[in-house]
Amino acid sequence: MTAECPNCQSHEVEAKDGYNTTLVGFLGGAPGHDHNNNCWKKFYRCRECDTKWEHALRRRCPAEDCDFETKETCFCFSQIPDGKALFEWPTPKYLLIYDKATREWSSSTTP
User: Fold this and answer.
1) Which of 9, 41, 64, 94 is the most exposed place for a label (fewest CB within 10 A)?
2) DSSP 8-state symbol, 18
3) What are the angstrom distances between the C-alpha of 49 and each of 9, 40, 45, 56, 80?
């Protein structure tokens, strides 16, 4: 899925490499299960109109016969279009990568 600006529908979108996570959910599950219900969010920006927004990622437990899924909505989704998390990150045209050595951001196109 290609990232699209919710304001002008442009695909000239950049996103930061990596994601942020909240610490308000819960961790757990039996061995082999992943029941981390914290929100994972990634920041996006349109290069055409400078609109900024976030997307959140929903996840499923990898264990066979387990129907655990992370939540679709959360109070921390204020900057997310439609207020709902997705099962895959939208792919931006440009990826912003932070270089800790130089303390600068660089941009590259995504494949």
Assistant:
1) 64
2) S
3) 10, 25, 9, 22, 17
